[in-house]
């Protein structure tokens, strides 16, 4: 009788469906059978590369590598770096080839990637899209803004005696002061105004010659400076790159953003 009971229990145990183990995403209601699938999915929320995930265990390494090879099937033979898309690999390989197909029309400097050229162009256009919410200063690069913001957390920042510009480190101040020591050897023959850079003199000459080499492809209006053309084009495409960090309102020009902040958020800039 005892053996019969044991057999019945075994049958009941075998008939009972196996409980499914699921891994649930903490961000959404999605569930996954494989833990590695959850890790792969989680990277879409965190932006963290799968191979850098803290939750990836050594026991999952084999499956992990399969996921990587499936996701990034385009590998560079020079350095081993892998990419999801072939276009990304082609762009990366230009670094090894020394190929620099992107050239600045202002000064002729060349770059291996378009992103490098776009960042460089801000030197000529004067565009500074990164705004400090503490003092209203704008910066060309996000790294420059981050470095600047350290000043507001320090009691005694390093200040330039010539122009009043402040720096978070004495070394940065020393580097900046070289600007004031540079001689302005490039002089305009028309009015005598001097410049430290040839490119500045060339741009200045257009005032006298009336030359406007930068033309809008949409309405054919011409401009003396590339920065003026860039501002004008925003009228056609309704681009407003200067956004207020306080309320989100966007503006076509920096001056519009400054005016808005002084009027609506002056207490934040104090």
From TrEMBL:
Its main location: nucleus. Keywords: DNA-binding, Isopeptide bond, Metal-binding, Nucleus, Repeat, Transcription, Transcription regulation, Ubl conjugation, Zinc, Zinc-finger. InterPro entries: Znf_C2H2_sf (IPR036236), Znf_C2H2_type (IPR013087). PROSITE patterns: ZINC_FINGER_C2H2_1, ZINC_FINGER_C2H2_2. It holds the Pfam family zf-C2H2. It comes from the Eukaryota. The keyword Zinc-finger applies. Residues 23-50, 74-101, 102-129, 130-157, 158-185, 186-213, 214-241, 242-269 form the C2H2-type domain. The keyword Cell membrane does not apply. SUPFAM superfamilies: beta-beta-alpha zinc fingers. It is found in: Nucleus. GO terms for molecular function: DNA binding; zinc ion binding. One of its GO terms (cellular component) is nucleoplasm. Belongs to the krueppel C2H2-type zinc-finger protein family. May be involved in transcriptional regulation. This is Zinc finger and SCAN domain containing 26. It comes from Homo sapiens.
